[in-house]
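Structure first, sequence second, as always.
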């Protein structure tokens, strides 16, 4: 593809500006590691919320979501529950506040508030650092494949996908290492503005270029229907036969069963709390528990509407104009080419440069947030804790530079050997998260669970996430999740019951500070003996109701822009009404109660 010099200039100016920002604010970021990794807990919650949303607006995920929406239509709004996207609702309602009350820098450091400082706590601390690094490397490999494939499809220079990925990862690494959290957040604000403008523009282009009649002529029955029965009910025969092969390969034909598994997995993963990545880092960087909750809520508000304007716009353009090229591919159809095709054929000069910069920004913001999150575990939880606990702040910052670079190098190495975007996506969301869930679920809700149980639960879970996909041929891969979960759960319970409970003083301190609900009876009685006026967290029922309302609310934020782009105005109006009702309920039953909680 040949880009106009105007588009190339816009992209180059954007890239230079992001690097410049990192260097301009590097002095502020390098004061100490709290400033480097958490921005000194001085960044407003709404800024962190937009930054967090920007980090989730990744180019690799966008390419995947365009292909999902092309194939499954409105039912594709549910498939991101594989991650699950509604974890932001559970974080918003209660878990962000619980996590922020700990006043720590990383998820590994948080474990000390739960398990103390004994051998079990030391083991649990070590294993979460390992998991953090493994998951970050997985996300870096995921980003590597996406940015390489995207760049090779668009940019005019004859370079390989891996070479492009190396270039853009190198540029991003430069400003992240230099500027830390301040650099990441500031550049993500700029990137989010660019992405939002580009996304809405794509949606408008699709609305103006594609009539409802032209779209209806190329859609199978049920594509526009968000509701479903036992089976998926989509038949592409005679329209694009190879899509039926894709649906069969995905294994989503029995959609009700697949949906049930997504809800089961999604609720457990969400209740386990955020993985040790940039989402957790944003929560810990807020000023207070109430601001942490608001920040998580804002992510859904600012992320889904613009992102799905772009996704729906690209999908509609491809459905009408790219169907012939896809048909010629036969069963070797590559849906990840939809995004490059739609952009190259329908976006005018100037706007294409903005959109390219926006999608590069999407990659860079996700990559930057991931890179900034990982070294905190190596520096704060390994180097500072065990190697040089008395070093000065400058030494820790320099180690942060070094570990950031090392993590990127390893992530790139794995990116070279990953086969596809979908393969690494499926491993992260189904296998790796399966190994994380059991131990991290129990740590919040069961008082007897101890550091030994956490360690062995995580060890068995991580090993199962690596081994089960290789030896158990179950498709789709989400059905491997219960196997990995059970293996990890056995490790958790056996190790916990075989070793003593954690010191009651540690448990009482955690219970008073974090105030979780769950099975905390003995600890609650011990706290009451010392503090008779202590009131337990009795918000379980209210929290679960708010979670249910919040999931409906979030789904409306996804469906509304799709309905607007495909011009289903009646359904868009219904979505607006439901969105207004659920927003009002959350206002009076969640937002208004944050400060008093």
């Amino acid at each position: 593809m040949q880009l106009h010099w105007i588009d190339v200039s816009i992209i180059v100016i954007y890239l230079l500006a992001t690097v410049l920002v990192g260097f301009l604010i590097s002095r502020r970021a390098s004061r100490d590691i709290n400033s480097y990794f958490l921005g000194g807990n001085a960044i407003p919650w709404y800024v962190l919320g937009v930054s967090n949303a920007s980090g989730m607006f990744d180019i690799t995920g966008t390419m995947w979501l365009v292909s999902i929406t092309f194939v499954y239509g409105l039912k594709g709004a549910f498939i991101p529950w594989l991650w699950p996207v509604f974890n932001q609702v559970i974080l918003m309602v209660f878990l962000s506040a619980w996590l922020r009350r700990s006043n720590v820098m990383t998820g590994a450091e948080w474990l000390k508030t739960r398990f103390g400082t004994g051998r079990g706590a030391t083991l649990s601390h070590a294993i979460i650092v390992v998991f953090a690094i493994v998951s970050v490397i997985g996300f870096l490999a995921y980003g590597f494949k996406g940015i390489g494939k995207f760049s090779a499809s668009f940019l005019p220079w004859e370079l390989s996908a891996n070479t492009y990925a190396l270039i853009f990862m190198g540029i991003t690494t430069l400003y992240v290492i230099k500027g830390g959290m301040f650099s990441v957040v500031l550049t993500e604000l700029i990137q989010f503005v660019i992405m939002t403008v580009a996304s809405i523009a794509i949606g408008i282009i699709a609305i103006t270029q594609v009539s409802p009649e032209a779209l209806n002529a190329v859609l199978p029955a049920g594509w526009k229907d968000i509701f479903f029965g036992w089976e998926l009910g989509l038949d592409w025969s005679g329209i694009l036969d190879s899509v039926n092969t894709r649906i069969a390969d995905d294994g989503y034909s029995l959609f009700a069963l697949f949906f049930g598994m997504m809800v089961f997995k999604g609720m457990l993963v969400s209740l386990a709390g955020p993985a040790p990545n940039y989402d957790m880092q944003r929560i810990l960087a807020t000023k207070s528990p109430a601001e942490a909750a608001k920040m998580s809520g804002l992510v859904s508000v600012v992320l889904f509407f613009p992102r799905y304007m772009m996704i729906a716009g690209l999908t509609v353009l491809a459905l009408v104009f790219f169907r012939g090229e896809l048909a010629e591919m036969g069963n070797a159809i590559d849906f990840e080419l939809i995004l490059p095709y739609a952009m190259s054929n329908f976006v005018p000069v100037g706007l294409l440069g903005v959109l390219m910069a926006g999608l590069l920004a999407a990659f860079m913001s996700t990559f930057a947030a991931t890179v900034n999150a990982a070294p905190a575990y190596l520096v704060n939880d390994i180097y500072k804790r065990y190697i040089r606990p008395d070093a000065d702040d400058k030494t820790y910052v320099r180690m942060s530079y070094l570990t950031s670079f090392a993590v990127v190098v390893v992530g790139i190495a794995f990116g070279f050997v990953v086969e596809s975007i979908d393969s690494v996506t499926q491993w992260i969301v189904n296998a790796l998260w399966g190994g994380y869930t059991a131990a991290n679920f129990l740590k919040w809700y069961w008082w007897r669970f101890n550091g030994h149980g956490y360690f062995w639960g995580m060890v068995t879970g991580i090993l199962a996430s690596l081994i089960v996909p290789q030896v158990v041929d179950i498709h789709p891969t989400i059905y491997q999740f219960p196997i990995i979960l059970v293996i990890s759960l056995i490790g958790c319970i056996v190790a916990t019951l075989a070793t003593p409970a954690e010191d009651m003083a540690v448990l009482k301190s955690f219970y008073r500070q974090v105030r979780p609900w769950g099975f905390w009876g003995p600890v609650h009685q011990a706290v009451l003996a010392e503090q008779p006026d202590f009131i337990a967290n009795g918000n379980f029922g209210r929290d679960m109701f708010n979670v249910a309302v919040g999931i409906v609310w979030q789904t409306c934020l996804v469906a509304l822009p799709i309905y607007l782009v495909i011009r289903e105005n009646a359904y868009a109006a219904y979505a607006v009404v439901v969105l207004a009702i659920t927003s009002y309920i959350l206002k009076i039953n969640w937002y208004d109660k944050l400060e008093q909680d």
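Margin note: The two ends are 55 Å apart (CA to CA).
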